[in-house]
Amino acid sequence: MSPRRTLVALAAVVVLGAAALGAAQTTIRIGEINSFSGIGAPFTGPYWNGVQLAIDEVNARGGVLGKKLDVLKRDDKGQPAEAVKHAQELVASEQVVLIAGTFLSNVGLAVSDWARQNKMLFVAAEPLTEALTWSKGHDHVVRVRPNTYEQGRMLAEKAGKLKYTKWATIGPNYEYGKRAWETFRDRMKELKPDVQVVEERWPALGKIDAGIEVGAILAKNPEALYVSLFGSDWITFVREAKKRGLFDRMFVVGILLGEPEYIDPLGLEAPEGMLVTGYPWYDIAAPAHKDFVARFTKKYDKNPVLGSLVGYITYLSIVDAIRKAGSTETDKLVAAFRGLKVDTPIGPISYRASDGQSTMGAWVGTTKLDAKRGVGIVVNHEYVPGDNVLPSDDEVKKLRSGS
Amino acid sequence: MGRPEAQGRSAGGTIIAGREVAVPRALIVGLAALLLAIPPLLPTFYVWVLVEILAFALFAASLHLLMGTGGMVSFGHAAAFGMGAYGAALLVRWVKAPMLLALAAAPLAAAATAVVIGFFCVRLSSIYFAMLTLAFAQIAYAIAHQWYDVTGGDNGLLGIWPARWLASPVRYYYLALAASGAGLAVLAVAGRAPFGLTLRAARDHPRRAEAVGIDVRAHQWLAFVVAGFFGGLAGGIFVFLKGSVFPESLAVAVSVEPLVMVLLGGVQSLAGAPVGAALYKLLDTVVTRYTEYWQLVLGVILVAIVLVFPRGILGTLGARGRG
Amino acid sequence: MVLFLIASGLSLIFGVTRVVNFAHGSFYMLAAYLAYTLAGALPLGGASFYVAVALAALAVGAVGTLVEIALLRRVYRAPELYQLLLTFALVLVVSDVVKLVWGSENKTGPSAPGLTGAVRVAGQLVPTYDLALIALGPCVAAALWWLFYRTRWGVLIRAATLDREMVALLGVDQARLFTGVFALGSLLAGLAGALQLPRVALTTVMDAAIITEAFVVVVVGGMGSVPGALLAAVVIGVIDAFGVLLLPCSSSGRGV
């Protein structure tokens, strides 16, 4: 490489870096790292909408601690290594006060470990793995969304009251899928000791060969099926399963599958009568929530999905923590999140001091088709708050001591 | 089925047209001086970027030995990188090995893997060689993904951080510079030594090489192992930079990146690899930071570069310089 | 059968032009999205779906032709692997274009009208659409066979697959040949993508998901051999099915 080109390149690098550093501290900067491309993309778009709504509203009211909020958005492409790189950049070059976001569980774990090493606060929004707050939990991570343990148990509480004993399961072959099943199964066995598992299917994430999977499940003749597939795998599965009559032959339980992001794309092909966790945004009575939906729809011309709610609540929590701490120093923020109570459109939630897990819950209900809106909806739903299904502080201590 | 290769070929194939492009020694010295002096003056983030570039420069250079000098295009070089990364990470995780030991073990782990993989692959030629290397990399990926108890599956191995006295960005940078620099130097020397010449002979005229008494297959196998060794070292540098390793390090994308880098910089000379690595990584970092549609921008820029520099950057500059 | 379509296109392109076309998966994806939009927009009732599939395949064939003329032609003289860089860049560009135009949410395509049911075959319910695709495979194979063995152009293609330089020396316009091959290859990939509409969800990572499989089929079947691609696609499909049945934890080591 010619000397001139080298110098030019390095000069550019230095100038860019200096420009970044030069930004004055008149705003509070937050680093948002998420999978805006790749496999998480369909979910992080709506999530980001929720985030922006929260930020715009807070800034319209004057910001927090007298400063406006500035969210710096980075794409991790679904790769843990990229997320860590962005975390490094955001803290070193952009002076963010904390890191928020991530979607995939393994990305969340990587950023969490980085946060622990570098003593920054990580507010995990969507990753569902229990390891984040338990076996690999630590002081510098908190999580918003109800995890696989909670949702599996919520579903098991309901399913355990039904008559089905021969179960099969299908889920994506990685930790999320497996844990989603295991927490459900373990609780089921506690409630109904005669439960037997006749088949387990674990297609690779994003690469399901639905015809084969459906065939394999049907061959074992289960009475009920637990599904932890999501996204494109779920859509492909529904198509094949419907054609082969699977939904007529067994009862189906689906974790997350009542959420609009998973059920809306199916339109009127959504299966009915499934027991699911979900987010029936169209049917929540609380006035605060109705108002949230109205504001969201006004701004984006479409309805919120669960990701949007999570994004909104995540940043509400961050703002409340900064207010409670009275500062943006990491130590004070970490302390502020312990026991932090946040008023959200779905009611108050709090962040447990024992593990940083928020008590945000989920709605459990049954799917049904709504011909007028052309999509599947969740009816007979019940909101289960996180504290109903989370383990006690003593149990958490035991879970975390292994780390 | 399908057409047989036109002549009995070794693992190489006529990939390279054109002569070597030599880089003036003064330039290398100047660059080295710059790399030694600048980092303490740079913002921390750019030091991290430089470390990543150093790792990938070595990674791409190791592929160049295989591809450019040896004429063997591998679509599975991620196996070297990933095995190096996992080798170091597993030692840290399970044996609590000190960082320098783990880092030293990384290239050895990768080389050991390369001995096995190379044994099978060098029996095939050109595109079939490429596909078999890809297949082996996929196997490694599957093992890393499935062997949850040992490798952590897709949660990966975390907490693989440098020793405290090396953890500061600038100090780790110097370590990476030393390792990568040494690796590049060895690769450069190997390319000019009789070993490199033999590889080139095997690449261009395998029949004649055999006739002269060169054991083409053995040399190519050795090249594969050497490439694996340095690819593994690159992986080791990378794992301590990120503090973690995931099965993604063994995925196809990680095999394609050094390929792109070598082609970008110019496949005719070893120097093309670090040039391509630096350019690609810088572009990637800058573009991702400033736009949501980074793929579009990066893709368009790459197309433009390809059209303007149809022999890779160094290749085209070299050709122009000559006439 | 869809795998056969996409693999034969890839095999053809590599066999004649020696270009490793990473963008093949992108063509597949682009056609799927195009068919999705067309199927919804065309006012032809039941036939919209089929017309959309055909149009999408043709459109993608045209895109492939354009790419070949505008971009690839300029780098044929470069070292053999160089075009790979170009197709790699194309993958990035198409991926973002799809995201820009159609958004990143998953989409569910329409079912094929008239083929939405299932029939009992050996005790299992098999979707009629799948049967239609299986029937389509040999038809396409036969059409390709006719093209390669009964037309002059086909003869030239087969000759070029065996010895490209000789064909050029014999005075055939290599540029036009390459363009034609690229057009046909992209058309096949596009057809494969469009046909997948009733079977899989549309995602922005469809291209990556299909390309590795396609490469495996092509290599197993022999680069440049369309009958090889057919045989390999069938064999791999069967092995896949058995593998997944025997080992429920199928991972990405599928190609092995």
The tally of helices of chain A reads: 15
In CATH, what is the class of the largest domain in chain A?
Answer: Alpha Beta
Written as H for each helix and E for each strand, in order along the chain, the element string of chain B is: HHHHHHEHHHHEHHHH
Q: Unreliable segments of chain A (pLDDT under 50, ≥5 consecutive)? A: 19-24
Instruction: Give the total of beta strands of chain A.
Output: 14
- List low-pLDDT spans of chain B: 1-19
Structural category of chain A: alpha/beta
Content-based structural category of chain B = mainly alpha
Q: How many strand elements of chain B?
A: 2
User: How would you sum up the major sheet of chain B?
Assistant: 2 strands, antiparallel
Helix content of chain A: 40-55%
Quick structural gist:
By secondary structure, chain A is an alpha/beta fold. Chain A has helices at residues 3-22, 41-60, 80-94, 105-118, 148-159, 175-191, 210-219, 231-243, 246-249, 260-263, 287-300, 306-325, 330-337, 386-389, 393-401, and strands at residues 27-34, 68-75, 98-101, 122-124, 141-143, 166-170, 196-201, 224-227, 251-258, 275-278, 341-344, 347-350, 362-370, 375-384.
Explain this structure.
Chain A is of the alpha/beta class. Chain A folds into 2 domains: 220 residues, 3-Layer(aba) Sandwich (Rossmann fold); 161 residues, Response regulator (Rossmann fold). Chain A is built from 15 helices and 14 strands. Chain A has a 7-stranded mixed sheet with strand order 7-6-8-9-10-13-14, with helices on both faces. A 5-stranded parallel sheet of chain A has the order 2-1-3-4-5, with helices on both faces. A two-stranded antiparallel sheet of chain A has the order 11-12. In chain A, helix 10 links the parallel strand 9 and strand 10. The N and C termini of chain B lie far apart (45 Å). The N terminus of chain B is likely disordered. Helices cover 72% and strands 1% of the residues of chain B. Chain C is 69% helix and 3% strand. Chain C is globular. Chains B and C meet through helix 5, helix 11 and helix 13 of B and helix 1, helix 4, helix 9 and helix 10 of C.
